[in-house]
Design brief:
Length: 78
């Protein structure tokens, strides 16, 4: 299974068009923690299209988040 199809499965199972930063661990099945993503955002290395809701809540469009995951992933040969 390719990395693209794995992340597509994540997106297809997600019930919303956005992923809240505090829910990224659920979206990625524990691959990313919210704090790590916050640190990457501060470095300008997080997903594009970040949305601020209120003063403290951050979310990402699912499609943007999936593209970002695909760029960061690589298949490991046996």
């Amino acid at each position: 299974m390719s990395k693209e199809s794995i992340f597509r499965i994540f997106a297809d199972c997600w019930p919303s068009p956005i992923v809240a930063r505090d829910q990224v661990h659920l979206f990625t099945d524990g691959l990313y923690k919210p704090k790590h993503l916050a640190n990457l955002d501060c470095l300008g290395q997080g997903p594009e299209g970040r949305i601020r809701i209120g003063k403290r809540k951050i979310a990402y469009p699912v499609e943007s988040f999936v593209r970002w995951l695909e760029k960061r992933a690589e298949e490991v040969e046996k």
